[in-house]
Structure formats: structure tokens, C-alpha cells
Amino acid sequence: MVTRRKLFGLGAAGVAAAGAGAITARSLVREPPVAHATAAEPFPFYGEHQAGIVTPAQDRLHFVAFDVTTGSRAELVELLQEWTAAAARLTQGEQAGSFGAVGGSPEAAPDDTGEALGLPASGLTLTVGFGPSLFDGRFGLAARRPPALADLPAFPGEKLIPEISGGDLCVQACAHDPQVAVHAIRNLARIGFGRVSVRWSQLGFGRTSSTSRAQVTPRNLMGFKDGTSNMKLEDADLLREQLWADAADGAGWMAGGSYLVTRKIRMTVETWDRTSLREQEEIFGRDKGEGAPVGKRHEFDPVDLAAMKPDAHVRLAHPSNHGDARLLRRGYNYVDGSDGLGRLDAGLFFIAYQRDPRKQFVPIQASLARTDPLNEYIRHISSGLFACPPGVRDAGDYWGRTLFG
Amino acid sequence: MSAIIRLTAGALALAALTACAAEPPAPGGSAAARQPGRIAVAAGDTECKVAVSEVAAGTSTFAITNGGSKVTEFYVYAPGDRVMAEVENIVPGLTRELIAELPAGTYETACKPGMVGKGIRNPLKVTGEHKALNADAKLAEATRSYQRYVKSQSDTLLVKTQEFVDAVKAGDLKRAKELYPVSRTYWERIEPVAEIFGDLDPAIDAREADLAEGEEWTGFHKIEKDLWIHKDVSQDGPVADKLIADVRTIVAKANATELTPLNLANGAKELLDEVATGKITGEEDIWSHTDLWDFDANLEGSKAAVQALRPVLEERAPELVGTLDEKFAAAEAELNKHQRGDGWRLHDELSEAELKSLSDVINALGEPISRIAPIVAK
User: Fold this and answer.
1) What does the pLDDT look like over B76-103, one tens digit per residue?
2) Please, what sign has the CA dihedral across residues A166, A167, A171, A176?
3) Rounded to an integer, what distance in angstroms lies between the CA atom of residue A88 and that of residue A394?
């Protein structure tokens, strides 16, 4: 395993150096080059917006939600500063602490856990978010809770498990290499011990959306292309209108940030797999092979909603049904092994960024939850809502400065 | 039982450790400054009268008379509850002596009727000439201080294990069940020291799941299963005899081994690792569910090792001392929520959320404790 990873890392780096701009072995075959997305060349950490939102979706995810266990606002701020410093290093392919895995005292526990030694940055992005519960009385933030961070309503049919839902803070780690994403979360969790407690975490593989036109459209575990008509990083005007929060939206500190909704959606793939192709395609409103909308031949042909069944998934979710509301989706497939009944414990870890969930995720999901025939095969089992602050400007800045500073 | 503490051969240099009472005066304590005579301590169930509130730096002898109805203990604490000297198991009516070497400073004395809680405290001021110790002397004093602790704990371990063994051999299931977690307390406080002696630790403390096919199972947990599951210890006479014999051997060895400051630092961490891997999960006392007794003892043992190093840490890493105090207090507070009478709630009565809270405070404490060893090694 180790040898293989090493070889792979070197291989990818070698290809990148040769100018092919490769992301992963898979992408060598499937995807054209994307700026700054090579294994060796990291995404910038500092900027107006946090990386990991419009960043071309990497292939792997480790998402974690924390409860804050300290009652001290100063300690929380200190933690965010320490996290920011570590994230600035980790995303550039460096180690979590200044000594690293093997550079410190032999009597000391290393300040990096070491499993990413020798691996390139692998396109790692780390994105932080603040949950509604952070704005209770504990840290004097109640008055600063953004109106858009309103608790999600209960949706019909959902079966949320509280233990794997919510959280005061979240960190999304995306990378081309799962080892790199897990390494980052593990080290941030370690830095946080005593101030935060891991509430739940989720591994994901196989991005289920494209966030850039340079990427091909991937498939979810139902075998369908997902994210064809997603908002893309190239749609600057649309992003300004639909993705990035503005100072005028009611929370000045969120300007340049975005609101994140996560849903863990369990699929009963065994019954789905026994469903006829015709029914599968009718449920989605696209064909399974090309991803073309009903009645069309190619994936990117314009959709003809009228040609679809009234309750087709694509039709229900279409912006035209929701005042042109869109989401930037960047979800991941997940498989948590098998459950006790021998069924694949699998599905979609849905991730969507937007400017205001009240106007975007909520109406779209309300309509899907009511009438989507896909609901026969899926169940929402976890839910998360987070305000992701604007980006970290420079080394003197930190995650959440506009909120706490 | 956990991974065996890793020691270099050098750290295991065996040297006879003189008993507390026969220890030579500390480098700082001059003969002239020594308090002549004995300091009387009248211990009761609700009081702890110490004859003086101020003594001269150097060696002091306390004579504790237990006039109450409960078994008691007497401690001299330096700031942060660092045990300077301690005598346990003073039964009603008995007087026991305690010799303490105390440099100038502020201390607290404590009687602990029933051997639980923080005890009845009194301030004790120590004044007078006290030659400053250099850093190495501080480390030497740290290990001496911790070895006094090991000595006191292992003395009581012998007494309590004997009582447990007697109850098992007498077939007194009820008494044996009561004594099981109590006798283990003294074991769990000093387990990293016991673990130095490879074969004895498993003989005393192996769990059924630790055994390889065909290996003989002896020690506490074998009897635990017979007490709680089979409800029959009639065949356990030889196991009980072997247990007390093994404990006797390990106590003798533990007290004859010269520890290093790194042993203390690592031992403190090991004990918390034990909590995190064995007690939080309920794997340690899988039949009796008395894991919180062990949890508490591990935490106390860890604290004793850290506090022995406190003077060194205060000099080299004062910020860390503050963090450790805070995190120990948080861990104790979380654990104390589960106190019941003189003992603890059973592991299988705790909810997942309660166990997670306990796990969080142990993680919070474990990280700063892992920073002690390199500071000591500097």
C-alpha cells in the first residue's frame, strides 16, 4: 500500500512536471487539465473566498463536524487561529506543525501525524463553516447570527439521526488523494482536543458534481450523471448573484462567504438495481448513458421540461420552478461498508453552497421531498447547515476574523 | 493491562530504594532547621487537628492518631495537590508516623476519613533556610517524590489484595465483589510501574480477550468472571493464592526499581491512554462494569506523576502547568458527575453521550500531558 501510494504520488507529480496538468490517474484518461489542480501544484489558501467552494471538485472528501466544548470565546478564537495556520501549511503540502512528523524531539509526540509524508499537496482544500448552534448564548454571537442561517424546516420523509447531524463548526477537506484529506482532518481534530469535540465525520469518494466546465460530469451511485447543469466556477455573474453572500444580505461579516447545506442521503441501491432502465430514466428525466435530457441526444442539450414526466427529478429541481434558484453542488458518493442486513450502506453525501438557503435549498428540497419518485429509493439521514465565512486574506488573517475580530 | 511501558536498559538500573522513613535528608534540609519531636495529628471522622500550622524547612515527622470510626489517610500536599508525603490505611484507634521532607513553601495537610474525596484540609507553612535546588536536583526530587507515592500505593495494594483474596477463598461472594474494584484502585494508580515487569502484569491483570489459545488465565479478571458470571469462586483458591503472590513480587520489584523522570512523564500519559482505550469502552471490567473505579485510579495516578514533576515544569514550561491544572480539573469534574456513594456508577449505566464527554476530557488532557516528556528530557 505505502509503496503504491508513493509510486502514485511520484507518478502524478512526474506527469504534472511534464506539463500534462494531470489530476489523478483517472483524470489522465477522463479529464482535460484544470488550472492549479495538479497533484503537485497546490490551490492557493489565501483569497477573497475560501477555497473548496468553487474550486474544481476534487475526487475525495473527509468532512467533519465539531461541537465546541470550551466555554471561552478567547479559546475558540485561538483555536481558529491555530487551525488557520495549520490549514495554510497543510493545503500547500507542508506538515501540520513546524517540526513535523520526524523533525522534533524524539521524546515528544510528533506535531504532525505523518501519514502524508512524501505525498504532494494533492489539491487539498480546507473549508470552515459555523453552525447555527454556535450563535447561541455561549460566545456572545447571538446578535450576529445571519438571517440566512435560519434552521432548516423538517422535510417530509426525512429520518435524521441527531448524532450525525448539525455541529457548531465544520471543516470540509477535499483532495485528490483520500490519505491527504484524512490526514488534514485528523491533525485539525488533534489540535482541537480540549476545545472542540468531533461530533461526526464522513468520508466521500467520487465527486458527484462538476464545479468547472473543464471537468467531465461524474456519476452518482445510481449510475446517473450528476451536476450537468450545476453552477460552475466560470459563471462569475451567476455566482455573485446566487453563491456569495453580500454585506447587504443582513450579516456584514459574511460578505464573500457562502452558506453550506449538507445532507447524508442513504440509497437503497439493491431495490434501485432491480428497477427497469425505463423507470430509472423516467425518474431522473435523463437517459442513463449520455445524460441527455428526455427527448434530446446529448448531455448538454437544453432540457425540455414539458417532455418529462411531471415529477421527474430534473424537472422538480429545475430553477424555473423555484424563482431561478440554483445551488452549487459538490457532493460525494459514500460507502460505509455494509449494514447488518448485508445491504450496501451507501449513498450520496450531498453538499451545496448558496447565498441564502431560505430561498435556494429549502424550496427546492421541499418540492423534491413531497413529490420526487426518487424518494422511494433514498432517505435523508443527516443534515447540516453552516455559514462559511469569507476567505483568509493573508498570514495575519484567520478563519472567522470578520465574525470574532 | 496495556502496552508495556518502553524503558531503556539504563532506565532500569536497579537500586535499592530506601523506605520513606529511612530516607536521608533532602539536600536542602539542614539538621539545624529540622523540627524536633513529632507533630501530633488528631484525625476523626469530621476533623483533622494538626498541632502546628508552621514548621521549619527540612524533615518533619507527623504522628497521626485516628480517633474516628472510619479508616483514614493523611497527606501533605504541595500546590496543585502534589503529594509530598502520605500515609494510607490508618484504622480507627491506631497511630501511624509519617516523615516528610518539606522545603520552604506553602502546603496543605489533609485527613481523608473513609479514604474518599478531597479530605479535611489545613494550611501548613514551611519556613527557613532552603538551599536552591538546581534543575537536576529537582528532577531527582521528582522521582523520589513519585517513588514515595508508588511505595504508599503498593503498600495498600498488598493489604487490599489480601483482603480480596481472603474473601474469595472464604467463598464470601458479596464481600469479594465489594473489594474487587477497591483493591484494583491501588493497582491502577501505579500500573505503568507494574508494567515494567513484563510477565507479572499479564499474570495479574490479563483479560480473557488478551489470551492466546491455550494460555493459562490468572489474576483479577479471572476471579471477576467467576464472581459476576459463574457466581462461584469455589475453585479459585489457587488463582487467589497466585494473585497475592504475584502482587507481592511486583510490589517488591517496583519499590526496588529506580525510576527516571521520563518514566514519570510517560507513565502519566500511559495511564490516560489506558483510560481512553480500556475504560471508556468498558473493556477492562467487562463482567463487573466497575471501570470507573479504574478510570478514577488511572487519573489519580497520572496526576501524581505529573505533580511530582511540577517544580521542574514550573521552571521550564509554566504555561503548560496552568493548562494541566485546568484540564485535570475538567476531567475530575466530568468524572465526579458519576460518583455514587463511596464509589462510581457502573459502566453499563452510562449513556453514549456521557461516555463521549468523558472521552473528550481525557483527549483534552492527553495532548498537554504528551508534551511533558520532551520538556523533562531537555
Assistant:
1) 888 877 777 777 778 888 888 777 778 8
2) negative
3) 10
Cβ atoms within 10 A of the Cβ of B54, count? 11
pLDDT of residue B197: 67
Model pLDDT, residue B202: 84
- Please name the residue that has the C-alpha cell 490526514: A183
In A219-297 the beta strands, taken as DSSP E runs, fall at 258-267
Intervals of CATH 2.60.40.420 along chain B: 38-131
The 10s digit of each residue's pLDDT in B311-359 is: 999 999 999 999 999 999 999 999 999 999 989 999 999 999 999 999 9
B201-210 residue pLDDT tens: 889 999 988 8
- Neighbouring CB atoms inside 10 A of A72's CB total 13
Quick check: ipTM above 0.90? no
Q: Top-level CATH class of B134-377?
A: mainly alpha
Mean pLDDT computed over every residue of chain B: 84
Predicted TM-score of the model (pTM): 0.74
For residue A325, give the C-alpha cell: 434558484
SS3 of residue B193 by DSSP? helix
Q: Which three cell numbers stand for residue B34?
A: 529540622
CA-CA distance, B149 to B155, in Å (whole number)?
10
pLDDT tens-digit map of B175-190: 999 999 999 999 999 9
Would you tell me how many other CB atoms lie within 10 Å of the CB of residue A38? 26
SS3 readout for B212-257: CCCCCCCCHHHHHHHHHHHCCCCCCHHHHHHHHHHHHHHHHHHHHE
What residue type is assigned to position B291 of the chain? D
- Put simply, the answer to whether B374 touches A108 (Cβ < 8 Å) is yes
* Choice between B94 and A148, residue whose per-residue pLDDT is larger: A148
Q: What is the CA radius of gyration of chain A?
A: 21
Q: Could you tell me if A34 and A212 are in contact, meaning their C-beta atoms sit under 8 angstroms apart?
A: yes
The three-class DSSP label of residue B211 is coil
Question: What's the pLDDT at A168?
Answer: 98
CA-nearest residue of chain B to A109? B370
Enumerate chain A positions whose Cβ falls within 8 A of a Cβ in B. 69, 104-105, 107-109, 163, 190, 193-195, 197
- Which of B367, B370, B372, B376 to mutate to probe the A interface, most A CBs <10 Å? B367
The partner residue sitting opposite B364, judged by closest CB among A107, A163, A193, is A193
What pLDDT shows up at residue A198?
Answer: 97
Given this model, what pLDDT does residue B258 score?
79
Q: DSSP character for A309?
A: -
- Cell numbers linked to A384: 447540516
Q: With CA atoms as reference, report the closest residue to B244 among B278, B287, B200, B288.
A: B200
| pLDDT band at A36; cut points 50, 70, 90 | very low
What 8-state DSSP symbol labels residue A213? Answer: T
> What's the CA gap between B40 and B48, in Å, rounded?
10
The helix (H) or strand (E) run that includes residue B102 is strand B95-102
Q: Which fold has domain B38-131?
A: Immunoglobulin-like (2.60.40)
- Least CA distance to A66: which residue of chain B? B360
Task: Give span(s): CATH 1.20.1420.20, chain B.
Answer: 134-377
Q: Residue A5 has what pLDDT? A: 31
* DSSP helix/strand/coil, B287: coil
> DSSP label at B279?
I
Residue B6 in contact with partner chain A when CB distance is under 8 A? no
